[in-house]
Amino acid sequence: MTDTLDHLSGPLDMRVPRHLAGLMRAELPAAIDEVDAEIRRTVPEYDRPAESAYGRILRVGVERLLTAFVDQVAGEAPALADRDETCRALGHFEAVEGRSLDLLQAAYRTAFHVCYRRTAAVAEREGVPAGQVAALVEAMIVYMDEAVAASRTGHRQALEHADLHHREIRRELLRALLRQPPASAEAVEELARAAAWWPLPELATVVAVAPGAPCTRSALDGDVLIDLDDPEPRLLVPGPFTPARAAMLRAALDEADSVLGLTLPLERVAHGLRWAVRVLELAREGIIPRGSLIPCKEHLTTLWLLADTVLAEEMARRHLAPLSDLTAGHRRKLTATLTEWVTTRGTAVDIAESLSVHPQTVRYRLRQLDHYLGDSLGDPKTRFALDVTLRAAALLHDDDVSPDRADEDGGSPKKAVR
């Protein structure tokens, strides 16, 4: 207990009756819930899912601080050492996240106001004298000041412990590794030596993060290179990518739109970043689903097909030019049939089953395609070009390659072609 609380221990014992502590303890679960919710509402940066690292830290901090205060009022031996350790840890967390104590102090003020309101309501309901309420509020203020002081200590210690020079060198090392054209091997080795405890790995995995997306830095392993201030935020995980590394990234980026790049030799990770950034763009465009740690390896074909979307659209325009004068509905039906035929080379029965139409409808459409496209369908090179063109078109323009209403020539609506 600090000198300040020692000074108040006498007045608390004399002026705050024990039964008031019992009333407060009965209110404790509801008070913890309300403080937790109010902090999330007033400090948006802390409004994270309950199961996230932020959510767990916030909940544990609120529970420990409020419980220790009630113990103090009750005259029990409060675990103020644990309280102070919790506050120092919260300050340390803010420093690791690269923030000042402004948000944490705002959270403390919110907690105080919630507790004051609840105390006043209980005092009015139970008829507690005003002098006793004033003594309790005074203790709350001192308690909050001590919590802030302990957090400030943790924040300062974290900053003193962090080697800011090495942190900047590691950022420069990351930028050198991901630079295009690549930095020289000598420059990379010099930066790695300057970082001292970052040996150059044979393999590495890059992660592309959406600008402004939340990242719990304290969840990252110490050897992960970080640059979240770049217009294209990124991380680099050295060495083989293990399940433990995957769990670490999930804890740090569980709420962030991000892409898990390929694990590549170190000299190729710049390409891995380029591909990961492109997958992130495709997710933002709605071509692939958005999410946290989208596996780049699952979208390599899409990357290849859409490496140049303007070129993909031009190829589609050129290859399907003979169908341009048809109505949109008719063109969609013929294009869907052509896509199935080119990609599967199935029979009319197989294609009909896939498109949910009658085989005779497929045969009719194939005759029409033969009429419009002529001998080009018999050329292997043309068929390959059509294959990749139609796959890219399906990714870019679902409505142009998939019929979206009942088939005018006897069929039924088709499931989306991919």
Automatic annotation (TrEMBL):
Database matches in InterPro entries: CdaR-like_regulators, PucR-like_N, PucR_C-HTH_dom, PucR_C-HTH_sf
Tell me the Gene3D superfamilies matching this sequence: PucR C-terminal helix-turn-helix domain
* Domain annotation PucR C-terminal helix-turn-helix: ranges: 334-392
Taking every annotated instance into account, which residue ranges of this chain make up the domain PucR-like N-terminal? 15-178
This chain's protein is named Helix-turn-helix domain-containing protein
Species of origin reads Actinomadura gamaensis
